[in-house]
Design a protein that fits this description.
The complex is a heterodimer.
Chain A lengths: L6 H16 L17 H15 L5 H23 L7 H19 L6 H10 L1 H4 L4 E9 L8 H15 L17 E6 H8 L1 H9 L5 E6 L4 E9 L11 H25 L19
Antiparallel strand pairs in A: 1-2, 1-4, 3-4
Helix pairs in contact in A: 1-4, 4-10, 8-9
Chain B lengths: L1 H27 L6 H6 L18 E9 L5 H5 L6 H8 L4 E2 L5 E2 L7 E4 L7 E3 L7 H5 L1 H11 L3 H13 L16 E3 H12 L6 E3 L1 E4 L2 E2 L2 E2 L2 E5 L3 H4 L16 H15 L3 E6 L22 H10 L2 E6 L2 E2 L39 H15 L7 E4 L32 E5 L2 E4 L8 E6 L4 H9 L3 E4 L5 E7 L12 H8 L1 E2 L3 E3 L8 E7 L7 E11 L5 E10 L34 E7 L9 E9 L2 E2 L1 H9 L10 E2 L2 E4 L2 E4 L3
Parallel strand pairs in B: 1-4, 4-7, 12-13, 13-15, 22-31
Antiparallel strand pairs in B: 1-18, 2-3, 5-6, 8-11, 9-10, 11-12, 13-14, 16-17, 18-19, 19-30, 20-21, 20-23, 23-26, 24-25, 24-27, 27-30, 27-31, 28-29
Helix pairs in contact in B: 4-8, 6-7
The chains are: A alpha+beta, B alpha+beta.
Chain lengths: ~280, ~650
């Protein structure tokens, strides 16, 4: 039957069937034309939906209201389909495509990976799982706007004083007032970037540890930094990041499945593109 | 199989939670966290070491409480192809491919995100692969099942789809309505949030948007859960379509109460876009009944809606020139032509029920009359983007919806059109984000901080803003190396309350702002005061508190001259040669009357910078129409601190 290969028909049927299956609708197959049967299943569905929303079952009156709405929706839905109102409707088309992809996604990614699968994946994509360097540091801030011409001299004085006082220098009266904390522990490179900006973060990543140094420049001004510890990047063992690897593994599987799905799906079609006239196509810049 | 496992796992988890939780309740009788609690964590005498025992929020966490993905019907229909998983990846700082095919990445990650899709119960089949006996008894079903188990799911899916299309789907496998042969969108949303949530590093909140549109007037609220899947998956989101749902916020509050009562969880709601509500967002007269709002409404709203989204892509909602004629910064990214679908034009008398500052003022009045202030809310900014991409930076703005991702033509046509007029697509606002002062980056800590309103809105830039109110701040406190320590020990933070004014004292405020580390310098910090006088009328006043450079306020008008302008529009650049990187000051209310209710909030202004339209013009080599603004002064708005006279 030629009509069975009509994509439009596929869409309509799919729409009808999927809606039917997810339960908002009674079984079309048993309904006669011109008859709406509110089956027990449909009723149960209404009650379940209400109960999950409100954490209690509907009262009789509420249930009557819901049934009334359900009947109207069903009648309107059938008439709209019969009139072809779903055709050439971008929203309906995109929604149905989405549902179809959800379905294929879902079916394609049901199988749990084994540890061996995950280990292989981890080894193939170490960059996805590399841990961030972590920093432990203290900092004192100088606001260049408040020092103007004396900035260099004030910086030198501050650095000398910090070096004299050592790692545990009392910072409560050194430098200029600053909204950010004087001490940071166990913060990742990303966090340093967020708080101090890229420039400071890259400088910190290259700074030697265990003595006061500076000025290190940020978007705010000049900082003097005591970096007590820095951990290097590494790829953790699978046992430490299993959830994360599993997530990435599923993600890769899903992408793969979508590709395969469309490749196979499109084998059922001969695609012809009737190109528009030359002048209607925008030139790529 | 998977679903069964899932149910079992959830059951076990729930049992564990109950087992652990119940004895803890009996032993500890932990009261719910309160606003006092934060103050109580400070012992009378602090330890010698300033960092010891420090439990106040030291870092601001950046996020977006309002983002749509392809799951939202309107976003999907507009061409968005990215779902919640991609939205979280993007927010975490990963580079991804936008629905328009362009590569996109944030300048730096966000700390948290709420995917708040319109949740209208889109379901799809999953039980096909669950290996139910009926399915396994059918030869075709058996084959599909085996294919799925052997990793050939894509092929199975294709066959299933094919058999549906040709009407050959085995009747034995057709589900009767009422069987749980589908999974709701809600579960997909929850699952994506659970996967992306990484306590301490990134918080993915479970949430949804309740999209109330009464006669085209926007009354939307985003609902955010403090809880994980074990609680959130016990419910279905509240919708607006009868018979399940309603457009009336009172019904949403009932739903929230039912959820909390049943599950022991916690939810909050954040409204947005009063500017498109045509006078119904902050009513004195309820639009649903035509009656003045009563005490119950006030109580419920104050309880469930402690925050308001004051700035986003569809315009800025702080205030309006009609409401604040003396505020030269009031005219910012204004959307005031009509309601959400432009079916009705705006009238000036609607404005006071739409904008943040006016609502805060009316709240004082209502508190006097009803004993409860329904509009005692803190402030957040968020994007409301429908692209799954939370972008609020002018130079990295991916628009309201997929058709408005960067292109040479995205700014030049009607965005919305109706009886109310036309909103052009260049009017989209690249805004906003929320800064939350929380003790750590977890669902619980962020949620609790939001409930105590320790938040501020920005139009995109990530400036650090501190705001404390108390009776004893002194000029010297602004010179402290750790202003936050002084702030918390001598006062209350943004979102807090002052009362019991000591005789002869006026409230003092410690306010500080630090520019975005990769952004523009600051122009000034202002404090906006609103108050209710003895006659029952409300007033507002904007005070310039501290500013960059050596500008002097005009002797007649009292206005501070503009900071200047370094914007080079054709090149879409600016320089930080004007403005200050940091501003800090102690300010005392010079016109305080201890018998009058008042609120104070902070507005921080950046120096002028290029608007997204300038970046577009430069990148695409196009000319914007002359009416298109090409620069602006971005800003932050803090939650207020309220003063209430003692009874």
């Amino acid at each position: 039957m030629k009509i069975l290969r009509e994509p439009l028909l596929h869409f309509i049927l799919l729409g009808a069937v999927i809606f039917a299956v997810y339960g908002f609708v009674t079984r079309h197959r048993t309904d006669k034309p011109g008859e709406i049967v509110v089956t027990q299943g449909a009723l149960e569905n209404i009650i379940t939906g209400f109960t999950r929303t409100w954490q209690r079952p509907p009262t009789e009156e509420e249930l009557r209201g819901q049934i009334r709405e359900y009947i109207r929706e069903e009648a309107a839905y059938r008439e709209a389909l019969a009139m072809g109102l779903d055709r050439d409707d971008t929203i309906v088309r995109r929604r149905l495509r989405q549902k179809l992809e959800f379905l294929s996604d879902d079916l394609a990614t049901r199988v749990e990976p084994t540890d061996a699968d995950l280990q292989t994946f981890l080894q193939a994509h170490p960059d996805l799982f590399q841990s961030e360097p972590l920093f432990y540091f203290r900092q004192v801030y100088l606001n260049p706007q408040q020092h103007a011409a004396n900035l260099a001299a004030d910086e030198a004085r501050l650095l000398a004083e910090l070096q004299r006082s050592g790692p545990n220098a009392d910072l409560s009266s050194l430098g200029d007032p600053f909204l950010l904390a004087p001490s940071f522990q166990n913060v990742s490179l990303a966090e340093v970037k967020q708080v101090f900006g890229e420039q400071f973060a890259s400088a910190l990543a290259a700074l030697p540890t265990s003595h006061w140094q500076g000025p290190v420049t940020s978007g705010y001004g000049a900082h003097f930094v005591f970096l007590s510890q820095r951990t290097e990047r590494s790829v953790p063992a699978l046992s430490e990041i299993r959830d994360q690897v599993r997530r990435e593994w599923f993600d890769a599987k899903r992408n793969e499945a979508t590709e395969k799905f469309y490749q196979a799906l499109l084998k059922r079609y001969t695609v012809k593109i009737e190109l528009p006239e030359e002048k209607r196509v925008a030139q790529a810049r | 199989m998977k679903i069964n496992n899932f149910v079992i796992r959830m059951g076990v988890l729930l049992a564990l939670v109950i087992a652990l939780w119940v004895p803890a309740q009996v032993l500890a009788q932990e009261p719910a966290p309160s606003e006092q609690e934060l103050e109580n964590v400070f012992p009378k005498k602090a330890p010698y070491s300033p960092a010891a025992d420090r439990k106040f929020p030291e870092r601001v966490y950046w996020g977006d409480t309002h983002l749509h993905t392809a799951i939202s019907l309107d976003a999907g229909a507009a061409g968005c192809r990215l779902g919640p998983r991609e939205a979280y990846r993007f927010a975490k700082g990963e580079q991804i491919t936008a629905s328009s095919g362009q590569q996109v990445k944030l300048s730096r990650p966000l700390d948290f995100l709420v995917v708040s899709d319109h949740s209208d119960n889109m379901g799809f089949i999953t039980d096909l692969s669950a290996g139910k006996p009926e399915m396994l008894a059918d030869p075709t079903g058996r084959r599909w099942y085996d294919m799925m188990q052997n990793g050939h799911g894509a092929q199975a899916a294709l066959e299933i789809v094919g058999s549906f299309a040709q009407g050959k789907f085995p009747t034995a496998l057709v589900y009767a309505p009422g069987t749980q042969g589908y999974r709701s969108t809600w579960e997909t949303i929850i699952k994506a949030a659970e996967e992306a949530n990484a306590p301490g590093r990134f918080t993915a909140f479970i949430g949804y948007e309740w999209t109330s549109l009464a006669a085209g007037n926007n009354l939307h609220r985003n609902v955010i859960f403090r809880d994980d899947a074990s609680k959130a998956s016990q419910v279905e989101p509240y919708t607006t379509t009868p018979p399940y749902g309603s457009n009336n916020p009172r019904d949403l509050w009932k739903w929230m109460a039912a959820y909390e009562q049943k599950t022991g969880g916690e939810v909050l709601a954040i409204a947005h876009n009063g500017n498109l509500s045509n006078g119904t967002m902050f009513p004195l007269i309820e639009s649903f009944t035509g009656k003045p709002i009563d005490r119950e409404y006030a109580e419920q709203r104050a309880h469930w809606e402690r925050l308001y989204e004051t700035t986003q892509i569809k315009g800025d909602g702080e205030t309006h020139p009609f409401l604040s004629p003396n505020d030269e910064f009031a005219n910012y990214e204004r959307w005031d032509k009509g309601n959400l679908d432009m079916s009705q034009a705006k009238k000036p008398e609607m404005l006071q029920y739409e904008y943040t500052r006016a609502a805060l003022r009316n709240g004082l009045k209502l508190e006097q009359e009803l004993g409860v202030n329904p509009y005692k809310f803190g402030l957040v900014g968020s994007t409301d983007s429908h692209t799954a991409l939370s972008t609020a930076d002018e130079d990295n703005f991916f628009g309201k919806a997929t058709p408005y991702e960067p292109s040479p033509t995205r700014a030049d046509h009607a965005f919305m059109k109706g009886a109310g007029g036309t909103v052009m697509s260049w009017e989209q606002t690249a805004s906003g984000y929320v800064g939350v002062w929380a003790t750590e980056n977890t669902r619980e800590a962020l949620f609790d901080a939001m409930q105590r309103k320790e938040t501020y809105a920005t139009t995109g830039p990530r400036m650090v803003v501190r705001f404390f109110g108390g009776w004893d701040f002194e000029t010297g406190d602004a010179a402290s190396r750790s202003p936050a320590v002084i702030g918390y020990s001598k006062g209350v933070p943004m979102g807090g309350d002052l009362s019991n004014a000591p005789a002869g004292k006026s409230p003092t405020f410690l306010v500080a702002a630090l520019k975005d580390p990769i952004g523009a310098n600051l122009d000034r910090i202002q404090i906006i005061k609103g108050w209710l006088d003895a006659k029952g009328d409300t007033h507002e006043k904007v005070y310039d508190v501290v500013w960059a450079g050596d500008r002097k306020p005009d002797s007649k008008s009292g206005k501070l001259p503009p900071v200047g302008d370094t914007v080079d529009v054709p090149n879409a650049t600016y320089t930080n040669t004007i403005g200050a990187s940091e501003l800090i000051k102690v300010w005392k209310d010079p016109e305080f009357d201890a018998s009058q209710r008042a609120f104070y909030y902070v507005r921080v202004l950046e120096i002028p910078t290029p608007r997204w339209t300038a970046y577009d013009a430069k990148y695409f080599g196009i000319k914007m129409p002359p009416e298109v603004p090409m620069k602006g002064q971005e800003r932050a708005y803090t939650s207020p601190i309220w003063y209430t006279p003692a009874k």
